[in-house]
Amino acid sequence: MTDRGFLLLCAGEVLVVAAGDIMVALILQVIVLAAYLGDRRGYWAFIPAAALFAAVLAVSGHVLLPLLGLAAALGCGYAALTLQDYRLTLWAGDDA
Amino acid sequence: MIRPTRTTGGIAALALALAVVALPLANPAAALAAGSLALFLFWRAWRFERDLFAAATSLAVNRDVDRTILRQGAAATVRVRVDLVTPPGMEIRVRDIPPAVASGGAPLSLPGKAAAYTIRLMAPGETAFGGVVLLASDAFFTRDLACRRPNAPHLRVFPVGTTENGRGTGAGMGDAEVDRRAALAGQGIRGFRPYRSGDDPGQIDWKVSARRDTYYIRQLTGLEGGTPLIAVDLPPRAGDDPATFARFSMAVCGAVEGAITSRDGCSLLVVAGGEVVRFLPRTLDIREALAALGGLAPLEPRAPLYRAPGPAVLAARAARAPGAGAGREERAYRERLGDLLAAFAAQSPAPFAAAVRAALGRAEASEVRLYSLLPIGDRSHLVQIVHEAKVRGMRVVLRAPAGSPALPGVDVVEVL
To answer: pLDDT, tens digit, for every residue of B321-348?
Structure first.
């Protein structure tokens, strides 16, 4: 990705924050990230997760708690990803 | 583990900044932007792992070695081609892993492209390749994955000086490599030169003579006398090209190996500028010689000679100076100049020239093979080596890259 692409992503995020309404922000976010990506293979897997997070934000009426919950979920996801990577390493016969 | 790229770091920093904005302002849109960016990165990491697994499972390695049974220290050429399915958006490069006891590294190559490299196996026994390393990257993550399974073919390395006993199952009637000197060692042919009056007619090579339509004489290696001295001039570190230096190292190793196997040993002199780095006199042990060459790298000269010609050159100039002038004044001037040069030649403290002179004396060689990349800059150390060799009546063969400038006093220049 080029620096120009990253600057456009930052500009898109400013647009998302300025939208105010959470539904509009979600739609804008999906469009901005899709525009940022060159290869959108498997992008469908990201959209429901983002929509679920937006729903939690809208229902809870808070900002901190959903963010903490997301951080915890991503921590678990990172642990799962590490385990998957370890299995790949074992499969390849790597000692590292 | 996968490593984030600069782009991923930027997006993570952006998500963090958005979260910092969202918390005091209680802005759900900013929180959504921060959270969705974090989710986006996690999704990319998951996709990268899945793509890498798909690429690794499709891996096929075709490795070919020119000989699988070889002697310790001998060079083997490896040709390897790796085929795999590269997922869209991912870039994969491949590097072969040589056996653990091998010196020499494999180059990076693209899948589907053949790569060739040379290794030297430095320890006896059975060994195998270490597999291949996949260097995968996309816009967000990178990962080096070592796949150890494709390690064929297995190599058998025999120690120098031992005889293969043909072990294995079967009737014991198979061929085996025998390391044994014949009672009469044959003389190899170093080259050919035109016939001169007085040459032995028995040495005329009739095939070459018929081809060239004039008589040619075989020059035998056994008639050269003495062992060669291989002098290696390490290039300075500044501006070095790794590929060129790798070719240079291979040429030097090949020359040492060839000299030891075809003759009765060789001497090795490694210099860097006006400094003798290593000297190995008259060795027959290829392991010792290769160990002396091991770990050589471009070296910044620590004792520059500042273009000093050295005592041998000064003495030669002093001998040439007097007597050649036309008039009386010029003759007097030349005599005075000769005296000055002779005084400098006698009293000049030239430790490098003295060290080279001592090395040449211990080597007892009749030929100096000088390997140099001839980089731009001070070449006075090479001039001093050449002139010290010429003082002893040695033949000097310079091996340098094509297009290199000539050095005075060199008999033959060969292209590296």
So the answer is: 666 556 778 878 877 877 877 777 667 6
State whether B381 and B236 are in the same domain. Answer: yes
Four-CA torsion B104, B110, B116, B118, nearest 10 degrees: 0
Classify residue B306: in a domain, yes or no: yes
Which residues on chain B are in Cβ contact (under 8 Å) with A33?
Answer: 36, 40
Residues B16 and B33 in one domain: yes
Tell me: pLDDT of A94 over 60. no
Q: Are residues B39 and B50 in the same domain?
A: yes
Which chain A residue shows the shortest CA-CA distance from B89?
A39
Read off the pLDDT of residues B165-210 as tens digits, 9 standing for 90 and up.
444 444 444 444 444 444 344 455 656 677 777 777 888 888 888 8
Answer yes or no: do B295 and B409 share one domain: yes
A93 DSSP 8-state letter = T
Q: Which of B223, B244, B272 is the last residue of a domain?
A: B223
Which candidate, B63, B81, B246, B82, places its Cα nearest to that of B155?
A: B63
Check B21 against A93: CB less than 8 A apart. Answer: no
Rounded Cα gap, residues B58 and B87, in angstroms? 11
For the stretch B112-132, pLDDT in tens is 888 888 888 777 778 888 889
Inter-chain CB proximity A22 and B32 less than 8 Å:
yes
Asked if residue A75 and residue A93 are part of one domain, the reply reads: yes
Residue numbers of the domain that contains A33: 1-61
* Domain extent for B17: 3-56
Q: Kindly state whether residues B251 and B384 are assigned to the same domain.
A: yes
A18 and A3 within one domain: yes
Among partner residues B29, B47, B56, which is closest to A42 by beta-carbon distance?
A: B47
Is the CB of A42 less than 8 angstroms away from the CB of B43? yes
Give B-chain residues touching A54 at CB under 8 angstroms. Answer: 32, 36
Q: Per the CB < 8 Å rule, is A45 touching B35? A: no
Residue-wise pLDDT tens digits, B40-76: 999 999 999 999 999 999 988 888 887 777 777 777 8
- Nearest in space to B76 (alpha carbons), one of B116, B128, B118, B115: B118
pLDDT at B222 over 50: no
Residues A10 and A27 in one domain: yes
CA-nearest residue to A25 within chain B is B29
Are A22 and B1 within 8 A, CB to CB? no
pTM assigned to the model: 0.52
Evaluate whether residue B321 is within a structural domain.
no
CA B36-B42-B44 angle, to 5 degrees, is 105
Please check whether residue B49 lies inside any domain of the structure.
yes
Number of domain units in chain B: 4
| ipTM computed for the complex | 0.93
- Residue in A closest to B9 by C-alpha: A6
Q: Which of B290, B287, B268 is nearest to B363 (CA)?
A: B268
Phi/psi of residue B116, each to 5°? -125, 140
